[in-house]
Amino acid sequence: MTSVYDVPADMLIKKVAQDLKTKVPCPEFASFVKTGKSRERAPEDPDWWYIRLAATLRKYYTKKALGVNILRGYFGGKQTRGTKPPKFAKGSGKIARLCVQTLEKEGLLAKADKGRKITPKGRAYLDNFAKEVLLEFKKEKWDFARRPTSNARSKFFWDRYRTDEKNRSVSIQNFRSWGTRKIE
Fold first, then answer.
1. Where are the beta strands (DSSP E) in the chain?
2. 70-89 per-position pLDDT tens digit
């Protein structure tokens, strides 16, 4: 069974956001509101609301139960304060609250003892999209870059290529970050 943990988060979030765009209306204020006090302007992406909904749903999948205040922390960022050193600032509470309420109306989240948690319908919803993303990767011959486990303190930053004779594919190990690369 394919789960959210088996696919890259950015690809899954894009796929879920496209589907949520057909199901959920965008609020009126989304075109001009900032996403937190650490931001200077509104997001440039016109679909940022659906991406935030999808990221929120994925966050509830990976954690047990979350409240709005914890979500504000996840979507916060560095606030520049002029000549003073920068500080962390939480994201917008209204946006986090409205995301949670919207996902709750869709039946993907439910109230728990502390905060809210994902429902079985929400888990199945994300698992189906994870399966679709994984099938796309297999069809297009994508391979996941793997983080080295035994070489965690290695100071090399170039890619190492390892050929798998059975599959005749190349898997790429990049010491800097997770990611995916297309195999030619």
1. 77-81, 84-89, 109-111, 116-118, 142-145, 160-164, 169-173, 179-182
2. 999 999 999 999 999 999 99
The residue with tokens 């204020």 is: 29
Domains of the chain: 4-137 (1.10.10.10), 141-182 (no CATH)
The SS3 of residue 14 is: helix
Q: Return the bridge partners of 91, or none.
A: 36
Cα–Cα distances (Å) from 4 to 46, 125, 177, in that order, read 25, 10, 19
What is the pLDDT, as a whole number, of residue 169?
Answer: 45
Distance from C-alpha of 120 to C-alpha of 126, rounded to nearest angstrom? 10
Residue 9, classified by CB atoms within 10 Å of its CB into exposed (0-12), middle (13-18) or buried (19+), is middle
- As beta bridge partners, residue 172 has 161
Backbone angles phi, psi at 10, to 5 degrees: -65, -40
3-state secondary structure of 70: helix
CB 125 within 8 A of CB 111: no
Q: Cα dist. 181→56, 128, 132 in Å? A: 26, 23, 18
